[in-house]
Amino acid sequence: MKKIIFTILILSGLTMGANAQNDGKYWLGGSVGFSTYKPKGGDATKAALIAPEVGVNFSDSWGLGLAIGYTHLSVDAGELSGKGNAFSVNPFVRYTYFKKDMASLFVDGGIAYTTTHVNGLDDNYNEFEVGFRPGVAFNIAPNIKLLGKFGFLGYTNEKFGDSKANSFKLGLDLTQVQLGINILF
Prior knowledge:
1 helix; eight-stranded antiparallel beta barrel; mainly beta; elongated
């Protein structure tokens, strides 16, 4: 927990320092997501995510942000069955590579740490990831954008009890979709 608070403080200082040196706009917003996953003959998993975020644009193309997420999940997988909660911290850099009057395309590159606790289990599931999430933003008013983030390309390290796994992921399925809104000021 101390590491998470320290990371938030460092990122906050960097964000304010970036704005003091460059004339940019702050953004405040976030994303929501919902997923359900049940392979044929397998067990079901459902999850609902809310991830508020704050950031600053320090040029027309570059921004720095921080998202803090909460996920409520329901797992039906034998001894791993139950309801649980996950918390995540995700500092990221946003690069906007295409802009037109009403829309823009961007990619968020960052790191994320997530810890998940399922009721009734002794161990937490911990995940560390480094990667990229592409997205699209639609300008619906001068200072309001609707966002869609989809997919993930990157490295993931997972740990549950004594079990550890490392993986490289390219995910373009609906479990990776997040919809949100950002207000610029």
